[in-house]
Write a structure and sequence with these properties.
Layout lengths: L8 H29 L5 H21 L4 H22 L6 H24 L8 H10 L2 H7 L7 H33 L2
Length: about 190
């Protein structure tokens, strides 16, 4: 069987630089078109936010040799920031990023980590720190509700409940492994 030739590192770096340049040109072109046609609607800022998000994920995926939990953590943070950015560009008219999007993202991240915990128990030790970081980030809705920034709606409460249940599952399933991972990673 004949396999395709592997692209050399220098060639792939050149391709990435060309694609980044093309993306930057597209972003500038979108901005110019937006300013010339409909300056009252900031649609170019939304599209450019998406371009930045894609490049953050692509560069991270190419440059880092990390496990699935690392990608879950990165996606959780990047998508949350993207939704807040989009909501900011739209002047927080409805506050959907904080009230709807981030709780849903937190729920999905916690469910994904729970599935990873159950499916790959033997490898769980590699996921432990990422799991704890996601659980800490999942407490964001609780903090925002305590500060009366967001209302006590069902999604925020669900995100907190799913996060706590995921943390309890983590402790029940792998308590000793988690303790060992925290001690080893944080040098306690």
């Amino acid at each position: 069987m004949i396999y395709p030739e592997k692209i050399k590192a220098k060639k792939s770096d050149k391709i990435i630089k060309i694609l980044m340049f093309v993306s930057a040109c597209i972003a500038i072109l979108l901005w110019v078109i937006n300013k010339l046609t409909t300056p009252q609607i900031p649609w170019a800022a939304l599209a450019n936010g998406g371009i930045v998000y894609v490049w953050v994920i692509v560069i991270y995926s190419i440059r880092k040799n990390v496990n699935i939990a690392g990608h879950v953590l990165l996606q959780t943070i990047a998508i949350s920031l993207l939704t807040v950015y989009i909501d900011y560009i739209l002047h927080f008219k409805r506050g959907w990023s904080i009230n709807i999007a981030i709780p849903i993202i937190i729920i999905i991240a916690n469910v994904t980590m729970a599935i990873l915990t159950i499916v790959s128990y033997k490898k769980y030790i590699k996921y432990a720190i990422y799991q704890l970081i996601i659980v800490m980030l999942s407490m964001l809705p609780a903090i925002l509700m305590a500060e009366h920034i967001v209302p006590n709606n069902g999604l925020n409460i669900s995100a907190i409940v799913v996060s706590v249940m995921n943390f309890v599952l983590c402790l029940i399933w792998c308590a000793k492994d988690v303790k060992d991972a925290v001690v080893r990673k944080l040098h306690w």
